[in-house]
User: Fold this.
Amino acid sequence: MPAFLLFQLEAPLSSWGEAAVGEYRPSSERPTQSALIGLLGAALGLERSDEAAHAALRDGYGFATAQLGQHGAGSLLRDYHTVQVPPRSSLKGRPQATRRQELALPSRDLSTIVSTRDYRQGAHHLVALQANPSPRWPLELLAQALREPRFVLYLGRKSCPPGAPLWPLVMEAEHALAATRRYHEQLSTLSALPLPAIESLAFDDAVEAGIAPAMTRRRKDRLIRREGWQFGDRDEHFAYVNAAAERN
Assistant:
């Protein structure tokens, strides 16, 4: 019977970046694979320059995400965003470790970039990880890292910290759907308010899902180079959770 690492992602604001063109920065309704890798990397204390470690997170595990209830994806919040930036010419030969160092120029030399950024309000998802053969980090070690993260965790953007403990838990189950249901039951006992039921499950090819996909879509969220912000395509399967759709 396979083992799964389960944890929840709940926050007042989250943002799961889709492919962005120009000034518009959209957000998916579901966590992206690259964002989950970034979350685990932050918990482990990985530097962005450690490409091999991020590749090990990408290739060592299968990912599934369950959405809770009809409103689990959260409501859309669109932000008109302005950012001060230095000219590219001023950055050459001047390394910057912080935002403050980047802006250490006279105000007259700074420019402003305008963008529109999307966020999800009040989203709530459950995440299930299934380890591939010989993963670099055992699931229990990842769970411990999520309990005591080395770096600050956030849900897509630095302005989106978790609104509730991630409550990581490793359990054995027949498949990802069974694992998320058991986890949902245990999480419900800790919640002050009743949790909505699991409405849908999205999963990749490396997960034993336990449910037949209703459709498959291509997402550009497969991490290629973390430091260079390069991403590729992957197939993600999607299924509504109901008794008729489950595999026996």
User: Anything to note?
Assistant: The two ends are 15 Å apart (CA to CA). Residues 243-248 have pLDDT under 50 and may be disordered.
